[in-house]
Request: fold
Amino acid sequence: MTWPEAIAITVAGLGAGAVNTVVGSGTLITFPTLLAFGYPPVTANVSNGIGLVPGSVSGAWAYRRELRGQRDRALRLGAATLTGAILGAIALLTAPPSAFRAIVPVFIALALVLVVLQPRIARALAARPHRRREGPALLAGVGLTGVYGGYFGAAQGILLLALFGVGLDQSLQRSNALKNVLAGLANLVSGIVFVLFAHVAWDAAALIALGSVVGAQLGGRYGRRLPPVALRALIVVVGVFAILRLTVL
Reply:
């Protein structure tokens, strides 16, 4: 790895950490970066997931005030996320690499749609009347997002926010804090599976981890001040590049 590549991967990790903390979908920054430097798709996905774990912890810490009073809920939903993430990670490692190359562009395209629609989703959730209750449907939905997070995970945070808007009676910021914990848990659990059974590019994972920790703190402190249109535009650009890299280039 050259110094320019190392710097670029670290900067991508910083951006992903900030985006994951504020919105979700930071994988659409780091994953295409690794592809651009020649990492095979599955190795890039595995290394990226492991690298983003420290950033998820940092993001959860940045939103610690909004997490107060949610311990029991986080434990219940965390158990569903953990189970789903294990299944997703196993699916990634047992399916042939060609399946990942075929499926992930579809996931990225869906994630980009969610990124573009995120402001409308947030407005719709904020306008809902306060009569939501946590129930089995929410638990099942969170489990499915865990499967997605264990397999790939881009925009998992946006999926979680949408589920919380339907199933939880609380503010969007408190839901965002809970989202950071669950998305980070999915990365952690799948990362453990990857460490045991997959090839990890540890140099890339370490650089993403370094950048994501700093980025998560910046996202927690300053992320809401960034122009949201510019942020989403950046995510769409790198996401489109990833699709092209996997399907055309």
Residues 3-247 form one domain. The CA atoms of residues 18 and 137 lie 30 Å apart.
